[in-house]
Amino acid sequence: MHIGLCSPQWPPSGAANGIVSYVSAVRGHLVAQGHAVSVISDGRLFGSDGLDRPLLPEPREPSWFARAARKTDRWHGGLPEVGRMVAAQVLAARRIAEIDIVEMEESFGWCGIVQRRTGIPVVTRLHGPHVLKPPRQRTLAERFVDSRRCAAEARALRSISSLTAPTHATMDATRNRYGIAPDPLHRIIPNPISLPPEAQRWSLADCDRNHILMVGRFDFWKGADTMLTAFARLLALRPEARLTVVGPDTGLETAPGRVTHFEDYVRANLPPEARARIDFTGILPPARIAVLRRQAYVTVVASRWENFPYVLLEGLGAASPMVSTDWAGSDEIIADGTSGLLTPLGEPEPLAQRIDWLMANPDQACRIAAEGHRRCRERFSVEAVGAELLRHYEATLERAKPQ
Question: What SS3 class is residue 245?
């Protein structure tokens, strides 16, 4: 089988993106199983043979009409011009690599455009439908664009028969919100992860018991403000605690259309003693994050909304004690109190209390870490998930055969 995987970025080194992490894990396993895999990303084809090829001729300077069309396109929400370009790239990739099946995300409804224009069987992966994001303050223009994007995704997903989601929460909510009828080719397949060797896993003996780690963008969705406020409150109980925050600073939305960046936010909202014990690193390579995860006593996911985040899987896979907010589907990954701790969305006080309890109970932290790793190995390792994914590809191809 020759599988095409669409990715927003490639190669994966340095990409702070869950879809890229997913494509990287899936690609490695499928290649190891003897399948050909081509990654289609940003106008290029990255083959199993290691070659990197352009898919379309270099574009000429766009005309004034094309520039105007692109500006208008942004107001469609679904960016149909970009979707048509993605479809053209998939067709070009198939001429080079004889791809049998394509897997891609649902964003902007491009999956529907690719399926219509190429005729290639498309598996759509629900990495985070826009309609499922919790409500927040938005400008009128932003709400209009959001509604058009949701409409484009709804049209596409209603036309796609082969649909996968990492959790029941995501699949059920998407079908309910978009009015999609159930289908045998709608399947729950968790995001897979390659587990690190034992020497690269967390242990109580090697960590700093005062060190807390958060990996995620500094923005509203990743709950950076929740984590920072919780840390300031934790310091009243544990003045020796320190926090490392890793990720890009895309700005935290404090009002519709207004964002505040890390330094300004911390200066305005945290006392000096808290600011002095926070290290904001920006983006780091995965190898450096893995080291920090082993050095920290606990890793926190403070997000207001997630789908199936790799930052959580990576922590579980490394046998790190994990604390996460309880976004929809989190309980399908973590069993609260057994393989990790869950805490309410956007509430700093309970988050501070759960971290404090974990720091006060190292034996329990070790037990939770070990159970989290076992659960990750049995349910989410690439070995456990890969065979299920291949069966889904085969079922999709079988249905696509002429009757």
Answer: strand
Residue 187 shares a structural domain with residue 67: yes
Going residue by residue through the chain, which has 403 residues, state the pLDDT in tens, using 9 for 90 and above: 999 999 999 988 767 788 999 999 999 999 999 999 999 999 999 998 888 999 987 655 555 445 555 555 555 667 888 999 999 999 999 999 999 999 999 999 999 999 999 999 999 999 999 999 887 778 888 888 889 999 999 999 999 989 999 999 999 999 999 999 999 999 999 999 999 999 999 999 999 999 999 999 999 999 999 999 999 999 999 999 999 999 999 999 888 878 999 999 999 999 999 999 999 999 999 899 999 999 999 999 999 999 999 999 999 999 999 999 999 999 999 999 999 999 999 999 999 999 999 999 999 999 999 999 999 999 999 999 999 999 999 999 999 988 7
Which helix (DSSP H) or strand (DSSP E) does residue 325 occupy?
A: strand 322-325
Which three-class secondary structure state does DSSP give residue 262? helix
Q: How is 198-226 classified by DSSP, letter by letter?
A: GGGS--GGGSEEEEEEEES-SSTTTTHHH
**Number of compact structural domains in the chain:** 2
Same domain, 227 and 353: yes
- Between vectors from CA 221 to CA 212 and to CA 361, what angle results, nearest 5°? 25
Distance (Å, rounded) from C-alpha 239 to C-alpha 273?
9
**Are 390 and 364 found together in one domain?**
no
Q: Which of 133, 98, 103, 115 is nearest to 27 (CA)?
A: 103
CATH code of the domain covering residue 370: 3.40.50.2000
Burial class (CB in 10 A: 0-12, 13-18, 19+), 148: middle
> Do 372 and 389 lie in a common domain?
no
* Percentages (nearest 5) of helix, strand, coil residues in the chain: 45, 20, 35
The helix (run of H) or strand (run of E) holding residue 233 is: helix 224-234
